[in-house]
């Protein structure tokens, strides 16, 4: 996937003129991030991956603020985006203002750790929600299947090329 549109570093959404173009730029950046994350998961088991320098803190904070969260269970988008859900997540995310770059930037998250990204399997969330959920999934080994499937494909390709 080759995408060349970039969101300028000095971009100011409040004073921007063409909102449709801006939305497209944000969508392109979210898709680029999604493709990059998937490519990394194909090369490194999620259980061995660190997404930020603060993974341990984020994981402990998630467990404290969301003790009911089970990374193996598909996310209920309606619950997450309800008034109560938004309030809880907003409080969680604000702890990372000035600590995590683009902590509130829109990002694509798989609703379930058992599926690939797809139109019906993907939720648009702020980056901190993505980090919290994916760090928990990685710690639980729930994304390792992606590496294992890619490894099978690599072995199959290696076997057919040496035949």
Automatic annotation (TrEMBL):
Cytoplasm is among the record's keywords: yes
A single GO cellular-component term on record: cytoplasm
PANTHER family named among the record's database cross-references: PROTEIN PBDC1
Organism: Neurospora tetraspora
Protein name: Protein PBDC1 homolog
Localization per Swiss-Prot or TrEMBL: Cytoplasm
Family in the record: Belongs to the PBDC1 family.
Record keywords: Cytoplasm
Major localisation: cytoplasm
